[in-house]
Automatic annotation (TrEMBL):
ATP binds at D6, G7, G8, N9, T10, S11, V12, A13, T135. CDD domains: ASKHA_NBD_PanK-III. Belongs to the type III pantothenate kinase family. Homodimer. Catalyzes the phosphorylation of pantothenate (Pan), the first step in CoA biosynthesis. Its EC number is 2.7.1.33. This is Type III pantothenate kinase. PANTHER family: TYPE III PANTOTHENATE KINASE. InterPro entries: ATPase_NBD, Type_III_PanK. Keywords: ATP-binding, Coenzyme A biosynthesis, Cytoplasm, Kinase, Metal-binding, Nucleotide-binding, Potassium, Transferase. It comes from the Bacteria. The gene is coaX. Coiled coil: none annotated.
Length: 266
């Protein structure tokens, strides 16, 4: 089995895949735990092994990434100690992901964005716009040749809600439920309309601008991933496909490519 690990600022997503299988097949299981930069490799291993509930020997490969340096160190510490028989691939500069990065400075591109691009092109084999709802909200563009062309980054929904609650005495965090109207009749509905409908509108506007600037992407698949909030996603008119496992699928694609070109690590 292949274990995939996506270590983000807010959460750590895990996916378990069969050793073989068709491209885009769903994982055998997925899990999400709270991210903690103070977590040690031993603590991370305890959580991972407790969640996946399979013998360590059954894990023949691990592919991981993290945009959090401290968490990346914990992952690197965990792998040789707790998965010594598995082949390890950690996405970092120098790893051949198969995704050409057509940007000013490829080293600035987050490894999660690279994995999303790899997953999107591997599954759809066509131009894609990837909308990732995470700590930040990202709208990234993948060409019909699988190239990462760049994208737009905005604050995430949770960041916006936290900022409102922290900096405005009269406002507080609210449940992201659809309001009765865009014209809120009370503070809760006004916040729901502003955040939920506002973020959906922002995503739609960015996707629209991408299609205007790059006419060859007019019919591109718009795929949503990340810590998805169904209420926000339901208001996005441009999103065509929902793939919560997109980053994990990208890790799987990178693992298969990388291990095919080098001897198995023992």
């Amino acid at each position: 089995m292949l274990l995939t690990i996506d270590g983000g600022n807010t959460s750590v997503a895990l996916g378990l895949f069969p050793a073989d299988g068709d491209v885009g097949d769903p994982p055998l299981g997925t899990w999400r735990i709270r991210s903690d930069a103070r977590m040690t490799g031993d603590e991370l291993a305890l959580l991972v092994r407790g969640l996946i509930e399979v013998p360590t020997a059954a894990v023949t490969g691990v592919c991981a990434l993290s945009t959090v340096p401290e968490l990346l160190r914990a992952i690197r510490s965990m792998l040789p100690r707790y998965f010594p028989e598995a082949a390890h691939v950690v996405i970092a500069p120098g790893v051949k992901t198969g995704v050409p990065l057509l940007v000013d400075n490829p080293r600035e591109v987050g490894t999660d964005r690279v994995a999303n691009a790899a997953g999107a092109f591997t599954i759809f084999r066509s131009a894609c716009v990837v909308v990732d709802f995470g700590t930040s909200t990202r709208v990234d563009v993948v060409s019909g040749r699988g190239e990462f062309l760049g994208g737009a980054i905005a604050p995430g929904i949770d960041i916006a809600l936290d900022a409102l609650a922290a900096r405005t005495v009269a406002l507080r965090r609210v449940e992201l439920a659809p309001p009765r109207s865009v014209v809120g009749k009370n503070t809760v509905e006004a916040l729901q309309a502003g955040v939920l409908l506002g973020f959906a509108g922002m995503v739609d506007a960015l996707v629209g601008r991408v299609r205007t600037e790059l006419p060859e992407l007019a019919d591109a698949t718009v795929v949503a991933t990340g810590g998805l909030d169904d209420a926000v996603l339901a208001e996005c008119r441009t999103v065509t496909v929902r793939r919560p496992d997109l980053t994990l699928q990208g890790l799987r694609a990178v693992y298969q490519r990388e291990t095919a070109r080098r001897p198995r690590h023992r």
